[in-house]
């Protein structure tokens, strides 16, 4: 139960930032290097989840990858 709550919270922690960035297109205060590392790390966790066949790991990291990827795309597009 604790693991599920932790996964939900950390996965959807990106959502408020995504909403803000999409609405305002303001990415000035977001560090590009941090988001490149974040998206890369999440992608690697996703690959690992696929490799070991862990559905919760795949689901959580797919959502995290999508949400953090949106922020990264906006950062690159509106810098």
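Sequence proposed for the structure above (79 residues):
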């Amino acid at each position: 139960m604790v693991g599920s709550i932790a996964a939900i919270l950390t996965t959807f922690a990106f959502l408020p930032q995504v909403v803000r960035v999409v609405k305002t297109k303001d990415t000035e205060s977001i560090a590009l290097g941090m988001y490149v590392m974040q998206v890369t790390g999440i992608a690697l966790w996703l690959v690992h989840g696929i490799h070991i066949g862990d559905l919760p790991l795949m689901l959580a990291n797919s959502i995290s990858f999508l949400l953090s990827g949106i922020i990264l795309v906006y950062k690159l597009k509106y810098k």
